[in-house]
Structure formats: C-alpha cells, structure tokens
Amino acid sequence: MKKHFETEAIRNQTARTQFSEHSTPLYLTSSFVFENAEEMRASFSEEKERNLYSRFTNPNTTEFVDKIVSMEGAEAGYAFATGMSAIFSTFAALLSAGDHVVSCRSVFGSTHSMFTKFLPKWNIETSYFKVNEVDSIAGLIRANTKILYIETPTNPSVDILDLELIGNIAKKHNLIFIVDNCFATPYAQQPIKFGADLVIHSATKLIDGQGRVLGGVTVGNKELMREIYLFSRNTGPAMSPFNAWVLSKSLETLAIRVEKHAENALQVAAFLETQENVAMVKYPFLKSHPQFEVAKKQMTLGGNVVAFEIKGGIEAGRIFLDHIKMCSLSANLGDTRTIVTHPSSTTHSGLSEEDRLSVGITNGLVRVSVGLENAIDIIEDLEQALRFR
Ligand SMILES: *Cc1c(COP(=O)(O)O)cnc(C)c1O
C-alpha cells in the first residue's frame, strides 16, 4: 500500500543486492548481461521486464522515477539529462508536423526559445496567452491544437495559474494538458489532481536542492509516457545513473527542505512588505498576492521564490545587487544558498522593455530564491543592500 509522502521518498528503494547494503548503491553500468539467447530475445521483445541498456532504464534512474511517479500521483515516468531535455523530448515525442500548441507566455526562457525558434522548424506553431488572460485560451484553440502548456508559479514573476480551470479547458477541447511543476515541487503541488496529463520537472532546482547536478523528469498518463519512453530510448536524452543516484538521495529530504524553504521565504516576503524602498512583493502565500485564493486551493506551501519591485527601476536594481554581501548572484534557483537576481539588468537585458513587460518583468523586479540559511541572516543581507540608492 502507498505510504505517506516522506515515507515513500525514503523507503521506495531498489531491491537489496547480495551485499545487504542499507543505502542504494550506484549502478554505473552502461549495459546489463543475459543468461542466454532466449532471455535476451524475451527482454528485447519486452516479454520480460528488466534492464537492458542504461539509455533505456537503469536501477538508479528507475528508483528516482518511481519516487517522482509516487509523489505526483502519476502512472509512469522517464528521467532526462536536464529539465530542458525533458520538455523538448516530451513535445517532440507527442507532436507531428502541422500540430499546434497553446501555452502561457510566462514560461522558462529556453522553453520560450523552443516554442519560437525550434518547433517552427518542424512546422509546429505556438499561440501564447498572457498569465492574466486565461479567458482568451478557448479562442486560441484550433482544430490542430494538441497540447495546452503552463508553468505555475511562473518564473520570475511568481504569478499563479488556476490548474483546475485550465485543466477543465484542456479536457473540454481534448488537449494534452502539461504542467511544468518546477517551482512548486511535488511536495507542495500535484497538478495531476487538477487534470494535468503530464507533469515535468527540472530536477536541477529544488529536487536536487543543493546546486550540484542537472536533471529532468516527465511523469503522468501511462499511454502518453509510453510514447515519450519509446521516443527517448531511441533518441538518447537519458539521465546519467550518477545524477539519478544523487537526485534520489535528494528526494529523501525534499519534504523537510521544502517546508523550511517555504518558512524562510514567507519571512523574507513579510519583511520586504515593510520596506519603504519596495513597491510590491509577490509570494503565493502572502494575502496581498493577486491569486492568493487560487494558490491556497492548489498548493500546500508557497514555494521558495519571492519576487519584489524595488523603487527606482533598472538602476536601483543594479545598485541593490552590487551591495548584496552574503546571498549569491547566480542564474540557478532552489539551492540551499539564497540567490538574488535582477532580470531586467542581467538575464533579460537583451529583450526590449515591452517584451520584458509582457512576461511580468518590470524594471525593478528582483527575484529571490530563498535558501536554507537562517532567515535572520538572509533578511539582514537584503536589508543592508536595500539601504543604498
Ligand atoms: C530551470 C528550469 C527549466 C530548465 O531546466 P534545466 O534543468 O536547467 O534544463 C525548466 N523550467 C523551469 C521552470 C525552470 O526553472
């Protein structure tokens, strides 16, 4: 019988070997051996379920995938080298030339590049709706629309999309509903409950949680996962057993880490709301968040990312970053170390102001990925940096 979240994360484990090890060993092997020709035949024809080659499955990747499947309430899954390879392989496996995608415009930067630069090479078009214009989705759907795609909370502006509402639109129009659940983690939000067919994670973020390895995973409906698996085992985006071993260990502490991340993030958000130099703070579990009620409906915790608007626009954001002492300036998020970014002067400085605004990146927007340091020290660093203007 399925146990509680934390128990599954710890006790869902590869079978013990003859060495009676307590912790799952690392299976660094590219292939597996067979007793005889008949066993090899039966294995390759899938009459017998077992490991053949680590591009297909490996005990470490299977353990990692099994945990995510259990956490998300999914039926099957596959582990990828990165979050982007999970996203790209999922789309490539399910779409054909001439198909159409409807997606929220507020998606991860490389996902946006996939939609606008690469999928069009195969005659696959994407129509965007804005995060606050969910009513326009139905009007974007065409006869050839196959996938409805969202992220929630969104990066970097921490907006919330209503999973149940959008899930119902997908169901009504017979679309595959795919959710990038990276910011929430399976501990705080399970999109399948609200109608998602597939859930994708960049395991690089809170799932690793310690800024060490890259990874991605797609889980969900059995039939869809079968197509994704067959595509992937032939085209080769598999996660390495080493990364799977690291990530499966990370999952053992996901619940306790995410609890603490969210506790720290709420304290940071509440502090920022008191600051004179701060025009606006966005965190899903702050009452002032425009979609607070939706966040409460679909999330059990608000996650670890806080966005805020510093008064004084681009220049104020640059000055703030330059005076940060302890927190890191880095493009990653979901690390034990608190990370501060100012998208309009750094990662998104190449976009026009209009393009930035269309994804909620105002000139003074600062994103804080709140880590696991003591909240008092995080707040002290932010407070001293906010004093410079
Ligand atoms: C980082 C990220 C990705 C991409 O994951 P990688 O592991 O870096 O390839 C996709 N979606 C979201 C929301 C992310 O934050």
From TrEMBL:
Catalytic activity: O-succinyl-L-homoserine + hydrogen sulfide = L-homocysteine + succinate
Enzyme Commission number(s): 2.5.1.-
Keyword list, A-Z: Amino-acid biosynthesis, Methionine biosynthesis, Pyridoxal phosphate, Transferase
A cellular component term, taken from the record's GO annotations: cytoplasm
Matching CDD domains: CGS_like (cd00614)
Pfam family, one: Cys_Met_Meta_PP
UniProt superkingdom: Bacteria
Family that this chain belongs to: Belongs to the trans-sulfuration enzymes family. MetZ subfamily.
Role noted for this protein: Catalyzes the formation of L-homocysteine from O-succinyl-L-homoserine (OSHS) and hydrogen sulfide.
Identification of the protein by name: O-succinylhomoserine sulfhydrylase
Lineage: Bacteria, Pseudomonadati, Bacteroidota, Flavobacteriia, Flavobacteriales
Gene behind this protein: metZ
